[in-house]
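Assess this today:

___
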Amino acid sequence: MSHKTKAPSLLQALIPLLALIGMLSSSVYLFGEDSSYGPNQIALLVAAGIAVIIGFKNGFSWQQIEEGITEGISVALGAMLIILAVGSLIGTWLLSGTVPTLIYFGLELLNPSLFYAASCIICGVVALSIGSSWTTAATIGVALMGVASGMGLEPGIAAGAIVSGAYFGDKMSPLSDTTNLAPAVAGTELFAHIRYMGYTAGPAFAISIALFLILGLNTDTNVSLQRLELMQEQLSATFNVGWEMLVPLAVLLYLAATRKPALPTVFFGALLGGVWALIFQPEMVSQIAGEQGWVAALKVVWLALSDGVSVSTGSANLDSLLSGGGMSSMLNTVWLILSAMTFGAIMEKVGLLERFIRGMLKSAKSVGSLVTGTIFTCFGANVLTADQYMAIVLPGRMFKEEYERRNLDPRVLSRTLEDSGTITSALIPWNTCGAYMFSVLAVSPFEYGIYAFFNYLTPLIAIILAYTGWTILYLNPKDKTAEA
């Protein structure tokens, strides 16, 4: 039996969004850093309930809404499985000595005053090579956070540098899924899209590095060599440290660079870390197990995959750094994503998201306002749907016709989708990307967001270029305001 439904009003579209903003703000005020461990999830589900009530009022049945929820959650299932696999990878890589070895060599090679800028560049190069900001953050990023801790540097700035570099590399890599998705949605060619992104991503990345250099040079880096040497001694006393410990990382980066599927790649990396722990860290495994034997050792690796590890080095700070991981450590992140995707799916199913976007489109008179409207819509979609893919596909579908009507080259739309939909996702705590970065870097987006310079400079530069008319391409050559 079909139900006759009616389109929502703009006020109806705004009510759940405003309610969510109010509840999330209250959550952060009341619970601080603990807001992502339950309170934010409840806020998202209550806001989803408000959207359901509006849907009922407009003629939607619960069966229709439930179907929408199922479809919406299914979009994020792959991401959630990858997040769980990353938890296992961190657990076994801590146990195998892979992460401790990266920290050991990082303390030896990185200059504290140049650390932030160097981290940004390193993550940019790695993400460009493999096309994944997530893999970069979970591997190189985790190790760099350990180095930052050893040098007594600010974790929020360090995480901001890692996120900035990871998203620049991801955005400019032809291996990245979102970099392929945006031109596909807009109807343009991949490499033309990447070249066109250089006008926004290039300046944003250069400015970001300059800002990280300034922050590093103005940071009190009077870290005694004895402190760094002591940390290295504690690492080498606890783990067998050597270049061979980096083989799991090299294998993972190779699989990612050759475009193997993310989930089996990450989980294989986790299993390889477990094998490496058995081969190269028998003393550590036996110490954790409390007894000798292969059965006890296998149990430790098994638990590292599921619940992570707890390491004792004699230093409380180092113990905190080298303990954690496991699938169970990611369950709160999965809970947050499920709650956010439920809210976003209901908003889309009952037409509230589309109505919100149409309201923005009406005010877009010039090319500058159209690009700006697209950027804010993608950001809003990241907030509402909690997924960067949705933040590319939905606005891309809805704005494509308007870009064509104004004779704009498809690259204008594809670049705008990436300038906003992809990189602002990491700034939102309940988005899949923000929640993931929080899980692996142990720093909230509320804390690192202000230092993720690349992630908000890029859309800002895109808006400036759009309003000045520079590098805006038209399908008809005589309409070009600039060459790109």
